[in-house]
């Protein structure tokens, strides 16, 4: 059996998956923010409790923010900053007395949806989490593409494609130090900021979507800009890896209008005479990260 752990900034969640992907047990603890050793101990505690409940030893996979650097073997790029510079895989393996596999949380989202979610049955799956930030993962033939620098799928930190003059002028500053990253245009906070720039009104992404559904012209215009920017951004991915399906996750994926609007705009930017790739909502929702972590161990049938 497989244990998957989702190591988040506010909570650490674990599940046990049976051979067919059925959930057999679940645990959740508050993340000990700022304390690395307590975080390691918390993960170990959840694993032990889950194994005690199912009464069999399990493989362990962990979804985490950031990535394991191939150069140093240490965590990098994690917004849970107390993980950065730490040998998390080695420390977890030591305390649990077994190999522990780690992957970026967006990669785990993509893997979960590729195995038995919205991307099941497709060879190349591009999974996108668009929420507070913007991350993505690539799964090919059931395997996560990590890359030589462990940054495959860092789509949100590329510049917004084909910007117009106003977008060039307004290019928001990104926490990575650059301006105009995709994340600064299509994440939840970015949508709210765009609406405020254009209307002077402060609304959440959910409120903007609701207002647009109720016929508010300014909210509809905001969704129109979002759709065009997302289409441009996704088109660059399609032009490079030509995925079979694109699965959206995160809070922005709950804007149902996107699944009608994007198919009409995407063909304008994709370098092809026809377009068959579907953009679809996720199946597993908030559980995709923890399920994807469990699936980091393929072929385990016990």
Description:
With 302 residues, this protein is of the alpha/beta class. The chain has 2 domains: 117 residues, Nucleotidyltransferase, domain 5 (2-Layer Sandwich); 165 residues, Nucleotidyltransferase, domain 5. 37% of the residues lie in helices and 20% in strands. It has 10 helices and 12 strands. The strands form 3 sheets. It has a 5-stranded mixed beta sheet with strand order 3-2-1-4-7. Strand 5 and strand 6 form a beta hairpin. Helix 1 packs across helix 2. The mean pLDDT is 95.
Q: What's this entry about, in short?
A:
The protein is built from ten helices and twelve strands. It is an alpha/beta fold and about 300 residues long.
Topology order in helix (H) and strand (E) letters: EEEHEEEHEHEEEHHHHHEHEH
Largest sheet: 5 strands, mixed
Strand order of the largest sheet: 3-2-1-4-7
Task: Estimate the global geometry from the Cα principal axes.
Answer: globular
Q: Give the full name of the CATH homologous superfamily of the largest domain.
A: ATPase, nucleotide binding domain
Q: Cα-atom Rg, whole angstroms?
A: 20 Å
Task: Assign the CATH topology of the largest domain.
Answer: Nucleotidyltransferase, domain 5
Classified by CATH, the class of the largest domain is Alpha Beta
Q: Tally the helices.
A: 10
Average pLDDT figure: 95
Tell me what the CATH architecture of the largest domain is.
2-Layer Sandwich
